[in-house]
Write a structure and sequence with these properties.
The complex is a heterodimer of chains A (276) and B (226).
Chain A (H helix, E strand, L loop, with lengths): L13 E7 L2 H6 L6 H11 L5 E7 L5 E6 L2 H7 L9 H11 L5 E5 L1 H12 L11 E7 L7 H12 L6 E7 L2 E6 L2 E6 H5 L4 H4 L11 E4 L8 E5 L2 H12 L3 E5 L4 H22 L1
Parallel strand pairs in A: 2-4, 4-5, 5-9
Antiparallel strand pairs in A: 1-10, 1-11, 2-3, 6-7, 7-8, 9-10
Helix pairs in contact in A: 2-9
Chain B lengths: L3 E7 L5 H13 L3 E4 L13 E7 L2 E2 L3 H13 E7 L1 H5 L19 E2 L9 E3 L6 H13 L2 H10 L7 H9 L9 H5 L5 E4 L2 E4 L9 H5 L1 H10 L4
Parallel strand pairs in B: 1-2, 1-3, 3-5, 5-7
Antiparallel strand pairs in B: 4-6, 8-9
Helix pairs in contact in B: 1-4, 5-9
The chains are: A alpha/beta (276), B alpha/beta (226).
């Protein structure tokens, strides 16, 4: 069976609470401090990377891979992601089309794993791991099987895909913002509409990333930032030094992140036992 | 630090893997002493080795070849199966003759069908950088990063078919597209957010399976040493 003795957060150097110093970035964010956007703006503006590849919501819950080369383009892609996009293959096309040499990717733990494995272990001549400078993984409880989720919203709550403006996680409740109202769905109920693959996934923070980022309930307005190697640590410290990021120690929220991570492992174990 | 003594042995196949090793060697010279047939007169340089990189599949109808493989196992500390034929059977499984050691023989299997393998590195062929990375983590003793290859050493067959069976048909696929990007023969195409396998094109190299985040996560959870 699964090994659970390992630390579900993986190896890391530092855990911080961070927020963007830029008002414009902070104003776009509600749940967290916009630290990821600020970090990437720093990397772009200081020339550490020549592009950032991220997923952007297009309509409903659908998304697509986009390249951002400026703060403005970053802001357009910012926000929570609720479905996974065939990111890997699209991303390769994007990197080649735009001839990017040093890229930061913002992705989910599973994608971080793929990119990091490709960077560490280039098995194919066509791999592009050497072009990936930073891998930033967002905390993830799973992505929706969004056809099923939208169907549920329509059938049970009479909300249509194009009316959904945002979906936010508040404690154990999922808030679906649509038109001018907010629908609160208990998380347990929403779990049924996650992709099955996500229900057996054990990685909450993205253990393969250079930097993991997300938020915790009791520190609203701040982003939890976990650095996992020298490269990630340098980026965070550099952004602080250059005034992009306000940074403070985050060791007191470690327990909270760990709790979520353990929940995901436990969920995976339950589902594995049931499904296989 | 003393250099690692590394032996390369080729057991049939196309020699693409051997070329990959030769290409990797210039950047490895600092840390390893490679004994490879292209660079030596005849006999092996040393009696014992730290690592053997073995390429190609093993002919199951040739006791002499199996014996030779077992002898190598005895004189080296760590056996690395390198390339898809050595690790998962690869395209050599389709062989209808024309291979070492006897051109009329047909049954070729991965190395772990005959001996205990410590690390399996698939790829058709794996890139030179792959071998360089492997030694970087191996010398650093970074077992966590090498776990996937350690676990793979106990697997005898992996291919696009297994990916479809284990991940896609079980509903575990999340549609990330890693497999499509990892297939050296373009046997996988994303169709309506899920991979579709063009069966005739799959050479059973296992790269897609190893690169699938879900599959590799499950593999690492299920087995291997802590």
């Amino acid at each position: 069976m699964m090994s659970t003795g390992e630390n579900p957060l993986g190896n890391f150097l530092g855990i911080y609470l961070a927020r963007a110093t830029d008002e414009e970035i902070r104003n776009q964010k509600v749940a967290s401090g916009g630290a990821v956007t600020a970090l990437l703006a720093y990397a772009l503006e200081k020339g550490l990377v020549d592009g950032v590849v991220a997923a952007k919501r297009t309509e409903g819950l659908e998304g697509q891979a986009v390249v951002a080369r400026s703060k403005k383009e970053l802001l357009e892609a910012a926000g929570n992601k609720w479905s996974i996009v065939p990111f890997a293959s699209r991303m390769k096309a994007k990197i080649e089309e735009e001839d990017l040499k040093e890229v930061a990717v913002v992705c989910l733990p599973c994608q971080a794993q793929f990119f990091a494995q490709m960077r560490d272990f280039p098995m194919l001549e066509s791999d592009f791991g050497e072009r990936i400078r930073y891998i930033v993984s967002l905390f993830c409880m799973g992505t929706f099987a969004f056809e099923a989720f939208l169907n549920y919203l329509r059938m049970k709550h009479e909300i249509r895909a194009e009316e959904v403006k945002d979906i936010r996680l508040k404690g154990d409740v999922l808030e679906v913002h649509h038109d001018d109202t907010v629908l609160a769905i208990p998380l347990k109920e929403a779990y049924s509409y996650l992709q099955t693959g996500c229900l057996v996934c054990t990685d909450y923070t993205g253990v393969w990333s250079d930097i993991s980022a997300g938020f915790v309930e009791n520190e609203p307005g701040w982003t939890v930032v976990i650095t996992r190697n020298g490269r990630g640590e340098e980026l965070v410290k550099g952004a602080e030094k250059e005034g992009y990021l306000e940074l403070r120690d985050g060791s007191h929220v470690l327990g909270e992140v760990l709790k979520r991570a353990r929940e995901k492992v436990a969920r995976a174990q339950r589902n594995m036992a049931q499904l296989f | 630090m003393e250099k690692l003594k590394v032996l390369h042995v080729e057991f049939g196949g196309c020699e693409g893997c051997a070329v990959s090793i030769i290409r990797a060697y210039p950047k490895l010279m600092e840390n390893i002493e490679l004994d490879i047939s292209y660079l030596r007169e005849r006999e092996c340089k040393f009696g014992e080795y730290d690592v053997a990189i073995i390429t190609g599949g093993i002919c199951m109808n040739e006791p002499r070849a199996i014996e030779e493989l077992k002898e190598i196992r005895e004189k080296v500390h760590t056996v690395v199966a390198y390339g898809s034929c050595a690790t998962f059977g690869g395209i050599l499984r389709f062989c209808r003759g024309g291979q070492e050691p006897r051109p009329d023989h047909r049954n070729f299997q991965p190395l772990n069908s005959a001996i205990k393998v410590d690390y399996s590195i698939p790829g058709c062929p794996p890139t030179p950088q792959m071998l360089q990375s492997f030694f970087r983590f191996f010398i650093a003793g970074n077992e966590a990063r090498l776990k996937l290859f350690k676990v793979s050493a106990d697997v005898k067959k992996l291919s696009g078919f297994d990916l479809i069976d284990d991940i896609v048909l079980t509903g575990l696929c999340i549609g990330c597209g890693a497999c499509e990007l990892s297939c050296p023969t373009h046997a996988i195409k994303m169709v309506d957010k899920r991979p579709n396998l063009i069966q005739e094109k799959c050479i059973r190299c296992g790269t897609c399976y190893i690169r699938c985040p879900r599959a590799s996560q499950l593999m690492c959870m299920g087995g291997g040493e802590r």
